[in-house]
Request: fold
Amino acid sequence: MSMEKPVLIEVRNLKMHFPVGTGFGIGNLGAVKAVDGVSFDVHEGETLGLLGESGCGKTTAGRAILRLYRPTSGEVIFAGKDLAKLRKRELRTLRCRLQMVFQDPYSSLNPRASVHEIVSEPMRIHKLCPRAEVSERVSDLLNRVGLNPHYANRFPHEFSGGQRQRIAIARALAVNPDFIVCDEPISALDVSIQAQIINLLEDLQDEFSLTYLFISHDLSMVRHISHRVGVMYLGKIVELTDRNQLYGNPLHPYTQALLSAIPVHDPEIEANRNRTILEGDVPSPANPPHGCNFNTRCPLAKPRCFEEEPELRQVSSNAWCACHFV
Reply:
């Protein structure tokens, strides 16, 4: 995919810190640095994958970009405006252009609302569709996500996990968005259903010219759906490049370790290849290491890594990496 397409979202030095209280109302004990200075662009019509293990801050980053959380600092530029600083009324006018598909289709749908009510609610809130045309629009959306429109009067508990996620996608599409954050949309689903949902997202992207931020810890799915991939570790992006470069020639030691965990189909190659096994646990985001965040587990760490934090710098025409030795 050509990166000549215009930038839709600019994220600049985004931080999301959650204060840690004492529990007795006497000040606080610092902050959990869930997202700690993340920067990237998302181009129109592309899928940017955000990859990392549980707890690295990728979901928090997605929610802060959409202003479901108010960022501690940083900028999120969309349509010429900084979402991080907009007031609620100004933000509401942009809400219909920015949507999210949540991880768990069991908890993200109101169990007391019918499918018709769930999918039509965004249209009613934003006054996007005349009342006489709402039912027709809901039927059309259900058709597009692969559900029978006759199911519109049923309730979420009557559907499987994959069907519920299709309902959630229809709800996101109801307001004709430009940008959708897909927060691990397949991790709660059976493996047999995951590929169907990924294919559906790709088809809808082509049909409606959608732009995705696809958050996941599933290396193979990110490779399948993404044009470019950002790798997060402990609240920071450590590598950002296009899909083929990342999976063919990973630059950062953490990315190399992640990819070495993917099994190879050929048993001879699998038996003889070198694998990078990371030792120790991920440090606490409330007390990250001094210097490079990855220095406590990195097999290449040198004294400089414990003193100086590496910046995310451009190392080739389409690759950025946060490592002193790349």
Q: What stands out?
A: The first strand starts at residue 7 and ends at 21. Residues 32 and 286 are 4 Å apart (CA to CA). The radius of gyration is 21 Å.
